[in-house]
Structures are given as structure tokens and as C-alpha cells.
Amino acid sequence: MKRLVILLLLTSSLWAQDTASVKVIARSLPNKVILRWAVDQPLAWKNANELGFWIERATISRNGQAVLPIERKQLVTQPLRPKPLEEWEALALQDQNVAILAQALYGETFEVSPPGNQMGAVYAINDELEQRFTIALVAAEQNYEASKLAGWALEDPSVIAGEKYVYSVSVALPQHNNITINNGTVYASPDMHEVLPKPIGLAGVFTDKKVSLSWNFNLLQHVYSNYQIERSRDNISFEPLNGVPIFNAQQPKEASEISMFYMDSIPNNTNFYYRIIGKTAFGETGPSSDIVQGKAEETLGFVPRIYQKELPTDNKVILRWEFKEEGNRLIDKFQLRKANHNKGPFLTVVDNIPITAREITYDGLDRVNYFTIVAMGKNNVESESYSTLVQPVDSLPPSTPIGLKGTIDTTGVVKLSWLKNLEEDLGGYRIYRSYNPQAEFSEITQTTFKHENYKDTVSIANLNKKIYYKILAEDQRFNRSKFSEVLVMDKPDIFPPSSPILDNYEVTTDGIRIYWIPSSSPDVSSHIVYRKSGGEQNIQWEKLFESKTLQDSTFHDSTLQDSNVFSYTVVARDSVGLESIPAKPVSVTWAGKAVKDEDIKFSGTVNRELRFINLTWKVRDFHVLEYRLFKGKEDKGLRLYKTLNGTSKGYNDVDLEINSNYTYGLQMVLPGNRTTFIKKINLKY
């Protein structure tokens, strides 16, 4: 069930709407559906009252099944209009809201004071219509029977359980007119009946001869439009308090909680019981709330005031206060309360001070003491003085701060923190900074800093590699502690090291040796050698070597095999991983690794039974394109005998003559058509 929000909005916002509409709400009961509606703009409201309203019911569902085609029924035989004035009289005598609504509809004038100019009459007419509109809707919401007399409400007793309806309320506009008022619709069914809830959140504050009641209006504003307050002395017989129902006349934007308040004057020292009952826009009354109980008591209207404090010793204080003599009859005693902080908590340190006393001596002061004098009323009501600070003579400084630590990021933001000092009279801290531990530190706080963490900003771009901090503690008497230990922080390294220089290279039979001049940056941790083969730009650099010591300035690349053009560069890396721009590369042409005699194992085995010679060979770590096998008989020279692919590991020679001496030679063809020497062996068959 939704409330008519229009009743609770300021009329200025209602005038601002572009198109007038009918707003409808419904209440579903087991045996009927009751409706209420209103037009949401003053001029359209006036026209609708003259033309009347049609009410149509559409049955859209029956026992969970859609009704097709939709069954439509007109619930009135002629447009509903306000009843004649004489039919209002009996009900108006019982409820002033009915009389107010009748006056708004039928009264000749509403009292309005127009501006003193020629447009005054126009303003008065507009203001009068707005007042009639607003007051009529508010009055109608307080009395459902009055809404029916006004033609703004209807009961439909012909509903059937299991059916669901859409009710449409429209203004009976003539066919040819220039008035536009949108229809209003609402969904209802006997199956949607809900029991009215109990109001919650009722609270009462009892003070001297009065009680202030409050409750959450917003929580049930969609159910109850107004409330009745009832009071009892015995918790049995309750009587209504407010002559007219209490309701909220505004709806603040985005309000999550709206509290209603009611003030009741009652005698002191008597128990009273309160409850509230909600009333809906349909005239229904819900269950009563939980009961709030209490009694008003006389307030102690006199307050002590500490006006003097005297310190005869470092550990003792004499406090003197003012309190009017006529207030003595209302109190039982005074109390002295003490705390270490102005906001408390305050504990009673001296109790049962006589009501005639105006002075107290307290022995046992701390470094910081806050005192209050409390007058204890006979009805347990307290009256407490403002606190006063008492500090003995103090020349003892706070302890030295400990636990200073910090972080610094690459933007120069420094975050410091330390352990909190435990002195009760601690005033705060002073923070100092330096870029040179031998130079004087500068204070960066300027005033006492009251927290245990601090943010500082420093320049990363200057040449100082470290930054130094220290702090001290200061009490409320401005006594200062010794400095903390100095915190040394390394500034983030955002500058890469300078580049090394490749200044020489050497081609050897085993590879290529390069030489470089190391980076001149002091924070260099290593040098890294990179290589790529060929002259094409898209070939990736390959990491070959990373120096272990800063003294390394040469590297021998012995991993080369085939002839090619090889490029080398060197990069310096510092302690935080920043790398220099690569050194200008050098390109070296390498003819290939020299093949030595021990790199080739060539042997043969004579098999006279099967009449062949088995030749085998093994080559160490060379890329062989093909093998050339040479053969010679007796003392004749070698001639090319066979050409074999680079994966061959041997050959069986069957072209033999008995009792002959043979010489075999093996030569490798390497990339670039580079050929090796011919390795020879002699065999007798």
C-alpha cells in the first residue's frame, strides 16, 4: 500500500509539474478493496471536482491464470462528484477535518492577503486555489469518510479471492476540451491483504515537569498517515492526548529517517505510561506500540564553578568553588572527580563532601590533572562543573622517542612513524631533517606535531643519495626530550648509470674477445655483454655474460662455431636494477672456429672374411655440411672417392684388392664452403 505523496509535498513543487495526473492508492482486505485518489495540481483538481471521476476495474488474473481477454467493469454508473453540502453536516459535527474539507470545496472565499498592486487580485485567486487544494487534501487524508463525500474514495465489495485487479481512476473529461489529466492506476487483490504493523521506535525523555516523545515516522510512512498519542497513569486505562492526529507535512529529499516529536507537560514524581497508535489514509487504526514508562523529576538548576586552584606543594592542590546557598536543599553531597584528559573519563576521587563545603584539598597529583566538582541531587540528578587543569611544577622532560622508521618512494614522498610516548602530559613531537649527517638538522614541523606518523616531501633529483631524520618529544610545559636515534634513508635511485664504452676487440682461433671501459657511475653492480649474429635489425640480442666484479672489462666469446658477422654491446646495471643505455655496438667478422687435428677422430677396420674395410669418424662440436672421403692405393696420391652428407658417421669400402695398401683421407666442408685439412689413415688389406 502506497501513500498519497502529494498530501505531504510543498505546494510550490506541485505547481511545477507539466501534466496533471490522478494519483491512486489501494488497501486490499479479505472481503473488499478500498481506494483513494487525488489530482496532483490545483487547477486540474478544481476541474476534476466539477467533472467527476470514473472508476474502472480490470480483472487480469484468476487463480494464477491470466484472464484473456481482460474483463473490465465500470464500478460507478455516473461520475463521482462531491456530495451536496447538506449531506456533510452530520459528519462535520463529529470531525473538524470534515468541516475543513467542506469549506475548501464549497466555501465562497478563503482569507488571503493579496499584494498591494494591480496584480493583487490575480495573486489572491491563485493563492486561494492553492490553499483550498492543499488544505482539502490534508483534511481528506485524516478522514476516509470525508474522502468518500468528496468523491475521492470508493469501496469495492464485489472482489473475489484468487482474482487480481488493476483499478483505473480517470476524470470524466468532455470529448472536446483542452484539459489534459492523466489517469491513475493501482494493483490490488483480496489475496494481498496484510495485517497492519505495530509502530516501533517510541522513546521518551523525562525531564523537569515534561516528557519528550519521539518515534520513527519514515519507517511506516507508507502505511500510516497520522498518529494518535495515548497516556495512562496506571498502565490500564489510556486516554488520547492530541486533539488532532499528528502527521508529517513535508517529505525532505533523500530522507532516510524522519522522527516525529511530541511534548507533554506532566507533574514531577508521578509515573506515566505512553503509547502511539497509527491511522491509515483509509481510516483504519493499527495496533498500539510498545509502552514507554517514566516520571518527571525536578532538575537541579544550580551548577558548581571552580574559581580558584592553589598548589601549596608539587603534590597537593586546594580547589575552591562557587555554589548558590539556595541550592543546598536540593543536593545530598559534592564529589571531586579527576581525569588525565579533558574529555575524561572522570573518576570520583573524593566522595561525600558536605553540602556546605566550598573547598577541598587533594593530595596525590599526577603530571596532568583535570578536576570537576559534581553536585549530587537528591533525585540522583547530577550537576557538574566545567573541568579545570592542574599541573604541578614540571621540569622533567619526556622520554626519548623510539622506533623511528620510514619509507620513501620514487616521487619523493617520505612516510615516518614511531612508537607513541606514554607521558600523560605529552604535548607532541618535533621532527628534524638533514641531507648531511655532519651538518645541522633543520626542524620541519615548526609547531608541536601531535601524532605518531608524519608525511614529508623531498627532492629526488639532487645529488644527495641519503636523507637523515631525528625527532624529539615535548610535553605541555615545553620540556623537550633528547633526540631519537638518527634514521638514515636511501633516496630512491631513479637515474640509470652511465654507459660503458666498447673500445677494442680481438679475433682468436677460438672466438672473439671484446674489451670495454666500465661505467663511471659509483653504484654500478655489474656489466652485461649481449651479442647478436648477422647484420639484420630484427634479430634479438642474446645475453652472454654478466660480470661478477666491477674490475671485469673483457670477455672472450668462445661459443662461436660457424663463420658470421657478430655484433656486441655492453650494458651497465646498478644496485637497484637500473640499466644504462647500451654501449655503441661493434661488429666483427669471424671466419669460423679453427679445426684442430684432435677435433677429428678417424679410424678404419679391415674385415677380410666379409671383404670390406669399415671406416668411422667422430667430429667434436662442428657444424658439418658434408664429408669428402679420399682414397689412394700403395704410393699413388689421394683422389676424391666419395662425398657424404654431414650426418654420416662412417662408410664401408668394398672396392678392394687383396694384399694391397690403402690410404684414406677425410675432409669436412663447413658453412661458408670452408674446408678443413685432410686427415689420413693407412690400412693393409
From TrEMBL:
Domain of life: Bacteria
Keywords in alphabetical order: Signal
InterPro entries the record matches: FN3_dom, FN3_sf, Ig-like_fold
Signal peptide: 1-16
Domain Fibronectin type-III: 496-594
Keyword DNA-binding (UniProt): no
Official protein name in the record: Fibronectin type-III domain-containing protein
Annotated organism of origin: Arenibacter palladensis
Taxonomic classification: Bacteria, Pseudomonadati, Bacteroidota, Flavobacteriia, Flavobacteriales
